[in-house]
Q: What sequence folds into this?
């Protein structure tokens, strides 16, 4: 795993209470204190990580922020395979909606309303497990609507 998981470092689940985290931290810190162990290089790193994890998870505000961040990272790492990152300019009109060609031969269908409502969003392919990330180009949205009224 590329991102350090503070809960994993403390050996706790994300449901753990403050008291759970606290006692896990105290146990680990005793075990891995650089003064008490032989392999000081490896354990100095571990010691540092335990402290860092506790620093973040011991405060309700920073724990909350970390939880949100961790959730997003997991979503991106585990369940979403992003085939392409495009802007809304690259979508082509299809029926009443917009579309983008998927590698599998199917298409990503984008609701035009989504372009008004979001800055950036993910769209799932109907046929396969890929997603695309669509970044909305607000400027060109405005242009095309004023163009259509003519000058
Ligand atoms: Zn597909």
A:
């Amino acid at each position: 795993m590329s991102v350090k998981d503070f809960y994993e470092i403390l050996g706790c689940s994300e449901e753990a209470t403050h008291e759970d985290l606290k006692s896990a931290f105290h146990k680990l810190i005793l075990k891995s204190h650089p003064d008490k162990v032989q392999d000081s290089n490896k354990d100095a790193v571990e010691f540092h990580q335990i402290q860092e994890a506790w620093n973040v998870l011991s405060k309700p505000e920073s724990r909350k922020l970390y939880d949100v961040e961790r959730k997003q990272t997991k979503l991106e790492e585990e369940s979403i395979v992003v085939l392409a990152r495009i802007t809304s300019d690259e979508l082509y009109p299809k029926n009443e909606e917009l579309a983008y060609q998927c590698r599998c031969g199917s298409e990503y269908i984008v609701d035009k309303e989504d372009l008004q409502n979001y800055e950036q969003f993910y769209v799932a392919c109907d046929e396969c497990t890929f997603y695309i990330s669509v970044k909305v180009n607000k400027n060109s949205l405005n242009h095309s609507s004023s163009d259509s009224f003519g000058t």
Observations:
- The mean pLDDT is 85.
